[in-house]
């Protein structure tokens, strides 16, 4: 399960970042922020070759010693980033994909809320719930 | 142990090359030897064989070879690899010793020399006792050798020498000292290289042969050692594929060793060495993925092998080194042509190395605090000054059992290591690694990673107490995080920066960081903000701020004294901070109430201020500076001594300013910039300035969000009493525009204007001003900016009495009209003349000045009014049809008729005053009387025609076209007042083609005939050539006429003379009748025949029924119809009847 889940706006500022409370929050912020380099590079190269037939899931962005960072970009260029502990080898690519899909669905619900102003940080109990379900449960 | 303990030994990192020792060379005193040596070692290029040469004296002592072990049964190895081993085989034990000896084949003292050489060889052999090192002899000769086989003496003596020295023939070389030294040397070294390879091959075999004596229980270490040695020898042999294979086996063997706390370091050290070799060879073989995979495996295997907990910093250091050396290898490979990608580049390894160095630092801080005293005697001291085996502890070398032999020694040893670790400059190591990583990430398009690493560098500098460098780095990256709106990260960086600024007592930086930490971008909690705000005001009051939390106490003490110095210094108490690029805690927005103001209105400016900090902020002064400095005096708010202005947290305060613009600023833009002064004159003053009208980095996005927000339309909007800050829009400039004129300008005219016409446009100016409009000027004419051709073909004048000429301008600028009293009217006419058709836009611009009072100030206004008149001249005023038909050519000296049609397309009736024809070459056949069109009125679509009889005189030049002339018409509009001038329109008549006629025939006949009454017709035939012409002439019979006269005749006509032929026709039928056909042919001039001549003759005549005696005389002229086409010919007939008889008689 994830140790950090983030939603990044089109303009690359964070809309939502949640990380496991046991570890340094700032470190995850940096990890997510630096992963945007790879996201941007991937989006720009993929966009050129395939046009709009783009796969939203970007796959493993880069491995660090401690974490694996996965990326996903919606059609409106909102980015989802999931950070997984490197030691967690049981997670398969498919599971990561389904996590992103779930996240995307929930994000779409948030955007459909007429009281939500797109571009504002996400404050939604339902979204929180979905994210919590995907996070590592620390007892 | 020193810091360099973690460095890989240089003999491991270098590329192993076969070692060949050269003896018998005196490179210092012998020039020839020097040259030979230089040829061997100077400028070795990559294509030369990989050998490292060394010059050694002939009696050099090589390392002693230990006696070979016959049995390994009782042998217990003390370690994996001896520290000296690699160096020994790289630099001490040669694969080949070459003896150089000066000896020519024909040397007179051959015998003596040969035995001397043999002795020298023997000396070398003894010092190499037990080694497999080869020996070779090179004879340096002065003479060029003969080709092999020819010199019998040489081959015989060579055999003898080999025998004496106990050498094989392959080991004896001859080096003639001639011109081609380098060529000989290259051949020599290739031969040496072969010998060296054989040597290393036998060495490999030798080591391999040990294997069968080993057993797995006691000799595990030897398995690793032997594999490593084989691999290393393979490398020396330049067999890198096999070397890689053996290193890989060695690597797996090293991890099969039983590991425990006492040998953990040794295992890690060796596995690190072998891993380094494997990765290096993989990169060399251009299989970088293998290298990366091996490295990952290595790290995964070794990550958990921490070893002794008290020395866990050693593990971190070792890990850091592993990553760093891999990064170096990777970088090296890239320099040699490998391409790296964004997600796989050396930067990641340097970063990870830095990460482990940070961990090392932390561990060292935790573990080494107790180790204050260095133990004595030094447990790290060894007798030899170094270690026997790689990766062993100095106090228990060679010890291989699980438990340490001596617990007390172990403790002091660890203490000594911990004590040494304290002195390590960790921060320097970390910063060096980070800056390596930064350089890599810059290369591979990772700006955010770069920023992140720079933040880490900054933090490390902060820990290393180099605050200036720390601030420089942090300040550099802060703006990236600010523009990307990562407030959490920005706040974290700002906190570090604030600490640095505090510890350096850098007042301005301190103020800036405080401001930003208090601002809305900061994610700090209220109480932290409160503390910072308190500090901020302390600084403003020129007091020492409280130290930031978590600062090093000793540094705080230093900082205090620095701050005290700062306070003592009277200077530098004023700071101006451009806050636009930050997110300060005071926000400012200014707006002009309108994007433009008329000069007679007061300009209104609103400035909104808002504080985001938790406590109220006293405000000393708000000053606005405008682009015209003179207005600044009206826009200042200062807090008085008794009461201070203050901004309440999260409340918007609005300041309104009004001022009157100066008349010289009309048409100019006024821009605003804002300055807020905090603090007191007696303390410190901080001026916050906003360029433009406020706002900062974040406000643009906030405004955008506010416009998107649903709250704007919701009910919530009305419920909130105060302004919504985010939706406040900035209006940073205003235009000052001239006063609205109270003056009406009316134009009246009757479009369309006609071409060439003097078209009248009357302008009525009526003043509705209260005062007198002074100096009214009118600018009238073609509006500038239209097609340039229009400007040339349009003329504007004020004088309507006469037609203006082409020199008149298209625009009349500034026509003075005097003063205009309130309520009065002024009328003027402007005349326009256009020479071409098409729409035109005219401009009427009235300017005047007036004195008005705005808020008690006298100002002079300039007002103007622009009126556009679109005049269409699309219709041609007079459409010309000049009917020249049916003649396409005009015969010379034969009269013809010209008819003109004047067709009016004007919507207005036109009066034609006169018309006349100005002829050039032609002459009029009739005296020109008065124009036939005088005072004719043409309505729209009507046509007026006029007819002229012309004759073209014989031309002198050969040109067969001729210009006709011009047709002039004078006209005016019908309802116009009589005073308006006549307009003269000139039409240029077309050129005509001339034709000369050899024979001219014309008939003289009455205008009509009567049935049964004689009708005399006289034909004139004129010869216009210079030759006598013969003419055949015949009259065809006709049903309508009887006739008398010559029916068929042949005549001769002299040049220039004329022949008359009289016929008496007798009409038989009434009505239009075709005259009898006259057939004429000229045998000498076949081009002229009946058809060409017939056009000169009338074809038909009207025959009346009544037979009265009236009109016996024929009229002067007859208008005939010629072949049914409407064409006018005038046939002059001035002669009387008396001629008839003559011609008949002649006939």
Automatic annotation (TrEMBL), chain A:
Q: Does the keyword Ubl conjugation apply?
A: no
InterPro entries in the record:
Longin-like_dom_sf, Sedlin, TRAPPC2L
Main location group: cytoplasm
Listed under GO cellular component are:
perinuclear region of cytoplasm
User: What Gene Ontology biological process does one annotation of this record name?
Assistant: endoplasmic reticulum to Golgi vesicle-mediated transport
Q: Where is this protein found?
A: Cytoplasm, Perinuclear region
> What are the entry keywords?
ER-Golgi transport, Transport
Entry's SUPFAM superfamilies?
Answer: SNARE-like (SSF64356)
Family from the record: Belongs to the TRAPP small subunits family. Sedlin subfamily.
What protein does this entry describe?
Answer: Trafficking protein particle complex subunit 2-like protein
Gene encoding the protein: trappc2l
UniProtKB/TrEMBL annotation, chain B:
**Subcellular locations according to the entry:** Golgi apparatus, cis-Golgi network
InterPro entries reported for this sequence: TPC11, TRAPPC11_C
UniProt KW Transcription keyword: no
Q: Where is the Trafficking protein particle complex subunit domain?
A: 263-519
Q: Name one GO biological process term.
A: vesicle-mediated transport
Q: Name one Pfam family in it.
A: Foie-gras_1
Task: Give the coiled coil ranges.
Answer: none
Question: Looking at the keywords, is Transport present?
Answer: yes
What GO CC annotations are associated with the protein?
A: Golgi apparatus
| Superkingdom field | Eukaryota
Keywords per UniProt:
ER-Golgi transport, Golgi apparatus, Transport
Q: Where is the Trafficking protein particle complex subunit 11 C-terminal domain?
A: 1028-1080
Per the similarity annotation, which family is this?
Answer: Belongs to the TRAPPC11 family.
Q: What is this protein called?
A: Trafficking protein particle complex subunit 11
Function in brief: Involved in endoplasmic reticulum to Golgi apparatus trafficking at a very early stage.
């Amino acid at each position: 399960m994830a140790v950090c889940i983030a939603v990044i706006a089109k303009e690359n500022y964070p809309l939502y970042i949640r990380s496991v409370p046991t570890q340094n929050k700032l470190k995850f912020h940096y990890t997510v922020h630096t992963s945007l380099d790879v996201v941007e590079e991937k989006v720009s190269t993929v966009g050129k070759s395939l046009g709009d037939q783009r796969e939203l899931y970007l796959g493993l962005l880069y491995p660090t010693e401690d974490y694996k960072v996965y990326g996903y970009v919606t059609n409106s260029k909102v980015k989802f980033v999931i950070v997984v502990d490197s030691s967690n080898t049981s997670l398969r690519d498919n599971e990561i994909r389904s996590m992103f899909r779930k996240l995307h669905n929930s994000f779409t619900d948030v955007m459909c809320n007429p009281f939500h102003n797109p571009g504002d940080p996400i404050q939604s109990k339902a979204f929180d719930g979905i994210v919590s379900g995907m996070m590592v449960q620390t007892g | 142990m020193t810091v360099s303990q973690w460095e890989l030994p240089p003999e491991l990192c270098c590329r192993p090359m076969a070692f060949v020792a050269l003896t018998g060379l005196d490179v210092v005193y012998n020039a020839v030897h020097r040259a030979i040596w230089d040829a061997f070692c100077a400028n070795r290029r990559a294509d030369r064989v990989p050998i490292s040469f060394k010059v050694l004296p002939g009696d050099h002592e090589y390392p002693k070879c230990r006696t070979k072990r016959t049995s390994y049964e009782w042998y217990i190895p003390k370690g994996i690899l001896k520290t000296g081993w690699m160096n020994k085989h790289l630099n001490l034990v040669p694969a080949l010793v070459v003896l150089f000896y000066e000896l020519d084949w024909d040397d007179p003292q051959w015998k003596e020399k040969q035995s001397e050489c043999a002795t020298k060889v023997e000396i070398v052999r003894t010092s190499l006792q037990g080694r497999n090192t080869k020996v070779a002899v090179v004879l340096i000769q002065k003479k060029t050798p003969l080709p092999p086989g020819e010199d019998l003496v040489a081959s015989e003596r060579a055999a003898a020498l080999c025998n004496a020295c106990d050498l094989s023939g392959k080991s004896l070389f001859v080096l003639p000292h001639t011109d081609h030294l380098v060529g000989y040397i290259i051949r020599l070294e290739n031969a040496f290289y072969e010998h060296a390879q054989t040597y290393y091959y036998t060495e490999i075999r030798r080591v391999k042969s040990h294997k069968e004596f080993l057993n797995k229980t006691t000799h595990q270490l030897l398995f690793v050692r032997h594999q490593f040695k084989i691999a290393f020898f393979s490398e020396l042999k330049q067999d890198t594929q096999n070397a890689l294979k053996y290193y890989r086996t060695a690597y797996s063997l090293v991890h099969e060793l039983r590991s425990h706390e006492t040998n953990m370091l040794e295992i890690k050290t060796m596995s690190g060495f072998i891993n380094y070799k494997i990765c290096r060879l993989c990169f060399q073989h251009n299989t970088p993925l293998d290298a990366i995979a091996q490295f990952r495996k290595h790290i995964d295997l070794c990550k958990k092998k921490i070893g002794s907990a008290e020395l866990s910093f050693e593990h971190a250091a070792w890990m850091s080194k592993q990553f760093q050396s891999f990064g170096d290898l990777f970088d090296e490979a890239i320099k040699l042509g490998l391409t790296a990608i964004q997600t796989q580049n050396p930067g990641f390894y340097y970063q990870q190395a830095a990460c482990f160095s940070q961990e090392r630092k932390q561990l060292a801080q935790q573990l080494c605090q107790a180790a204050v005293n260095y133990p004595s005697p030094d447990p790290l001291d060894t007798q030899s000054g170094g270690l026997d085996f790689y990766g062993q502890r100095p106090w228990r070398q060679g010890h291989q059992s699980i438990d340490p032999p001596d617990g007390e020694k172990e403790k002091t040893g660890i203490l000594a290591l911990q004590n040494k670790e304290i002195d390590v400059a960790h921060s320097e190591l970390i910063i060096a690694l980070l800056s390596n990583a930064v350089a890599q990430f810059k290369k591979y398009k990772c700006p955010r990673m770069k920023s992140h690493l720079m933040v880490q560098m900054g933090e490390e500098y902060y820990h290393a107490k180099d605050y200036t460098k720390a601030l420089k780095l942090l300040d550099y990256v802060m703006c990236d995080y600010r523009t990307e709106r990562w407030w959490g990260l920005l706040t974290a960086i700002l906190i570090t920066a604030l600490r640095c600024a505090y510890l350096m007592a850098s007042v301005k930086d301190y103020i800036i960081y405080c401001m930003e930490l208090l601002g809305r971008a900061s994610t700090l909690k209220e109480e932290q903000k409160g503390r910072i705000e308190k500090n901020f005001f302390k600084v403003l009051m020129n007091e020492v701020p409280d130290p930031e939390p978590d600062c090093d106490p000793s540094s705080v003490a230093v900082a205090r004294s620095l701050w005290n110095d700062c306070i003592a210094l009277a200077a530098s108490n004023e700071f101006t901070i451009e806050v636009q690029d930050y997110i300060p805690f005071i926000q400012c927005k200014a707006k002009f109430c309108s994007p433009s103001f008329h000069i007679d209105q007061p300009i209104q400016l609103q400035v909104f201020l808002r504080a985001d900090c938790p406590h109220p902020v006293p405000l000393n002064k708000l000053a606005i500076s405008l682009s015209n400095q003179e207005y600044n005096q009206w826009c200042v708010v200062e807090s008085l001594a008794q009461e201070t202005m203050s901004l309440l947290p999260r409340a918007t305060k609005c300041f309104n300013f009004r001022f009157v613009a100066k008349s010289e600023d009309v048409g100019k833009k006024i821009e605003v910039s804002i300055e807020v002064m905090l603090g007191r004159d007696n303390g410190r003053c901080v001026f916050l300035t906003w360029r433009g009208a406020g706002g900062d980095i974040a406000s643009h996005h906030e405004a955008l969000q506010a416009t998107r927000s649903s709250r704007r339309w919701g009910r919530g909007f009305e419920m909130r009493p105060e302004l919504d800050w985010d939706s406040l829009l900035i209006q940073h400039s205003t235009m000052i525009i001239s006063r609205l004129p109270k003056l009406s300008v009316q134009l009246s005219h009757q479009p369309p204007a006609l071409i060439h016409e003097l078209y009248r446009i009357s302008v009525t100016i009526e003043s509705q001003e209260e005062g007198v409009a002074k100096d009214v000027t009118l600018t009238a004419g073609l509006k500038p900016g239209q097609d340039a051709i229009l400007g040339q073909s349009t003329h504007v004048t004020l004088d309507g009495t006469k037609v203006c000429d082409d020199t008149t301008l298209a625009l009349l600028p500034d026509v003075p009209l005097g003063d205009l009293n309130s309520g009065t009217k002024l009328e003027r006419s402007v005349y326009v003349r256009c020479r071409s058709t098409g729409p035109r836009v005219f401009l009427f611009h009235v300017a005047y000045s007036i004195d008005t009072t705005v808020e008690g100030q006298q100002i002079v206004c300039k007002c103007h009014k622009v009126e556009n008149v679109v005049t269409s001249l699309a219709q041609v005023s007079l459409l010309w049809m000049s009917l020249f038909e049916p003649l396409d050519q005009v015969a010379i000296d034969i009269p013809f008729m010209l008819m003109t049609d004047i067709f009016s397309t004007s919507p207005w009736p036109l009066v034609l005053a006169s018309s006349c024809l100005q002829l050039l070459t032609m002459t009029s056949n009739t005296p020109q009387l008065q124009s036939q069109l005088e005072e004719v009125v043409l309505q729209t679509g009507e046509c007026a025609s006029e007819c002229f009889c012309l004759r073209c005189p014989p031309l002198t030049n050969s040109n067969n076209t001729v210009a006709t002339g011009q047709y002039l018409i004078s006209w005016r509009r019908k309802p116009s007042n009589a005073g308006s001038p006549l307009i003269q329109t000139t039409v240029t008549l077309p050129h005509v083609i001339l034709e000369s006629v050899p024979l001219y025939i014309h008939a003289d006949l009455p205008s009509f005939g009567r049935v049964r009454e004689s009708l005399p017709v006289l034909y004139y035939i004129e010869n216009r050539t210079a030759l006598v012409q013969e003419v055949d002439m015949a009259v065809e019979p006709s049903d309508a006429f009887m006739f008398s006269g010559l029916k068929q005749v042949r005549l001769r006509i002299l040049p220039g003379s004329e022949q008359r032929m009289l016929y008496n026709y007798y009409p038989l039928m009434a009505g239009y009748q075709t005259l009898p056909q006259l057939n004429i042919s000229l045998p000498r001039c076949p081009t002229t025949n009946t058809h060409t001549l017939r056009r000169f003759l009338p074809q038909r005549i009207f025959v009346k029924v009544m037979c009265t005696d009236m009109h016996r005389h024929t009229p002067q002229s007859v208008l005939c119809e010629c072949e049914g086409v409407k064409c006018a010919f005038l046939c002059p007939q001035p002669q009387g009847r008396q001629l008839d008889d003559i011609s008949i008689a002649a006939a």
